[in-house]
Specification:
The protein has 405 residues and is α/β, with parallel strands linked by helices. The chain is 41% helix and 19% strand. Helix 1 crosses helix 10, helix 2 runs parallel beside helix 3 and helix 6 packs parallel to helix 8. It starts with 20 loop residues before the first strand and ends with a helix.
Length: 405
């Protein structure tokens, strides 16, 4: 782009390959949910012009630093938040205009996802997004139970949640994803199986089922610390997770990742690019980027990000370069979290005896299954993903120390 010509990058780094995917962070919400620790500010009327100007500065820094001679061709765009639907009917179009200055993509092949809150996903927003090029929508429903929504601090009620899904389908979106949350406290008397079934009945082609996580810096985290709220016990958490897996796979949804289910040909390509090690760039406050083997992350808070952009300062908060050993372990962890699993040869860093005992133990416990030359976790294994990944990392580290001595 003409903006980048003649500019000298601040680090002199020249990346080996341009990104295939772009993430754009919208840091605005009407209110912060009780469990949320994302980078956002409360704003009923977001400062869209200032946000777009800051994104332009972010992209200028990227192209200057990377030295790309022409705009990379994208396969996926993901606009997340925050609440992207607060951009309204015109904000997404202006974002599209900005991105077209820097990137290329085939409008017939791009997967362009935008997240939405049920309350602000109006018919006008749906129509404008489709006209802009957005072709996949992810709706933060979380629950179809009014009591659960109130407890979570969500803006919408169950009627608005259902109406938003119907509205997206009626507007012409053929890829509609719904977020649902399980693992809520037992005193919320909702019918979890009924909620999963409701998502399917409404026409969702993709469901992301996330367990409630208690983060320290959130309102929920403070309540739990003070003993005013109590998280779900491990047994109930496991039951709800496995029940969601059983119900969704039973009606034709494939579980292609630990938390994600999709009908045939409706998996998120953007998600796959995160998990298969592809390069991606993130712009906006708190956005992360990965250009192998480098990870880069932006200034976290919107006010600091905006001030840095206005001052012409760097928007990067940090970067790191993975060692070959770290990269290999990360590939294993990412493989374990998807249905593709890992190839037996990817465990060659372990001795033959250790590898054999590990696979025997995990398959014997029904945590893993073999599919030809590959090994993948079962839903029961995905429940223990972090524990199993740590076990694998410990075994690799132990064997590396032995080899070094």
């Amino acid at each position: 782009p003409p903006h980048a010509r003649g500019m000298k990058g601040p680090t002199g780094v020249r990346w080996l390959a341009p990104p295939r995917s772009l993430y754009v962070h919208v840091p605005f919400c009407r209110q912060r949910c009780h469990y949320c620790d994302f980078s956002l500010v409360r704003s009923a009327e977001p400062p869209i012009v200032a946000w777009l100007d800051a994104l332009g500065r972010d992209l200028t820094e990227w192209f200057s630093d990377a030295g790309w001679a022409r705009g990379p061709k994208l396969e996926t765009i993901y606009v997340g938040g925050g609440t992207p639907s607060l951009l309204g009917a015109t904000g997404m179009r202006e974002l599209g205009n900005l991105l077209h200055e820097w990137f290329r993509w085939d409008p017939d092949r791009i997967e362009w996802t935008a997240e939405a809150n049920p309350r602000s996903l109006t018919g006008a927003v749906c129509d404008a997004w489709l006209a802009t090029g957005v072709n996949r929508i992810s709706i933060g429903v979380q629950s179809f139970h009014d009591g659960a929504l109130e407890w979570l601090g969500r803006q919408h009620d169950s009627a608005e949640a259902a109406a938003s899904v119907k509205r997206a389908r009626a507007a012409g979106f053929t890829d509609v994803s719904i977020d649902l949350m399980f693992g809520l406290p037992p005193d919320i008397s909702r019918d979890w199986p009924l909620e999963v079934e409701r998502a399917v009945e409404l026409g969702a082609t993709h469901v992301s089922a996330y367990g409630l996580a208690v983060e320290a810096r959130t309102a929920l985290g403070k309540w739990v610390e003070l003993g005013r709220r109590f998280p779900c016990d491990e047994n109930s958490y496991a039951v709800e997770y496995l029940l969601a897996s059983e119900l969704l796979t039973g009606v034709g949804f494939g579980q292609y990742e630990v938390s994600n289910f999709a009908q045939s040909n409706h998996e998120s390509l953007h998600n796959w690019h995160y998990w298969d090690g592809s390069g991606y760039v993130g712009i906006g406050p708190s956005a992360h980027s990965f250009l192998p083997p480098h990870r880069i992350w932006n200034v976290h808070r919107w006010d600091a990000y905006r001030k840095a952009a206005e001052a012409g300062s760097s928007l990067r908060a940090g970067r790191e370069k993975a060692t070959p050993e770290q990269a290999a372990l990360e590939r294993l962890w990412l493989g374990l979290r998807t249905r593709r699993g890992i190839a037996g040869t990817e465990l060659d860093m372990l001795s033959e005896d250790t590898r054999r005992r590990l696979l025997e133990d995990w398959t014997g416990a029904k945590w893993m299954e073999q599919d030809g030359a590959r090994w993948r976790l079962t839903p029961a294994g995905w429940l223990l993903l972090d524990k199993l990944a740590l076990e694998l990392a410990d075994k690799v580290e132990t064997e590396q120390r032995r080899a070094a001595t």
